[in-house]
Specification:
Elements (H helix, E strand, L loop, with lengths): L25 E5 L20 E3 L2 E5 L2 E5 L1 E4 L7 E3 L2 E5 L2 E5 L2 E3 L22 E4 L2 E5 L12 E2 L14 E3 L9 H7 L8 H11 L6 H4 L7 E2 L6 E2 L17 H5 L5 H39 L2 H28 L10
Parallel strand pairs: 5-14, 7-13, 11-12
Antiparallel strand pairs: 1-8, 2-5, 3-4, 6-9, 7-8, 10-11, 14-15
Length: 333
Amino acid sequence: MKKLVTLSIVALSFIGMQKTQAQVAVGVQIEVAPPEIPVYVQPECPTEGYIWTPGYWAYGEYGYFWVPGVWISPPTVGYLWTPGYWGFDNGIYAWNGGYWGEHMGFYGGVNYGCGYGGNGYYGGRWEGGSFRYNSAVCNVGPSFHNTYVDRTVIVNNNNHTSFNGHGGVSAAPNASEQSAMKEHHTQPTSAQQTHEHGASNSKGQRASVNGGHPSVAAKSNVGGQRFNSAGHTMTAPAHTINANTHATSTPQHTAPMQHQSQSVQQHQTQRAAPMQHQSQSMQQHQAQPAQQHQEPHQSQPMQQHQVQHAAPAQHQEMQQHQNAPVHEGGERK
């Protein structure tokens, strides 16, 4: 597939692109169509103020790979995310990079889901310096209070084609989108760039491997919890290990040692019980002759004195038993 790629000399790649003018920056040009947009469950927003950026198919060394949808902190208060999209023209699929801006621009009419139905964004809006979430569209937690409900914006769009043009989505920018294209734009944040780079290194995200069904469909945030298309959390397989994998897996190996320690403690307690009983019996036996030969007023001090001297012996016997070597089978000899 790599030999079908045509790189534009004047084009800029999506990552690291300085998009500050109205023109559309084209990253790569491919002769093979990207897979359809997978349907997946949006994870819960981790922090108020974050904005959802939908997943998309990017292109790398091994062909198309899926960049999971993720919650992102916007670079500036009041900015919205216009997703990038693939456009098809004259036999070439060209990538048009996404950007941040005050208003939503044109993203090819592609239905990315989760509030990006092909035109505009219906998952929330900025009000007075705070972002309000439309809980009818966005998955927000019960602790979020800056929310509203608007079900009229929900569009039942079952078209999951991932490109604009012949054979794909037929859409053109409307007046408001054309106006937004002329505004000042900000490039993807460093977190977004890191997010895409990480997806490019994951074998399970490649279309050539997953057949258009990526192993990780979405993330809670960059470097955060990963989710499959059904919304279930995932553990990292060997070929997608990240920096946090080793740290999170270490406690799993301490559980057997903890269980073993508890078992040894229980064994020592059970073995010590007969000795304690034996010591108490000896104390009672020693106390009985004293009571027979002493006056009634002398028997109680004598018994207390003997018990006090017996206690170190009991402690010494238990300590010797605990320090005894443990032989095969877990019994002490």
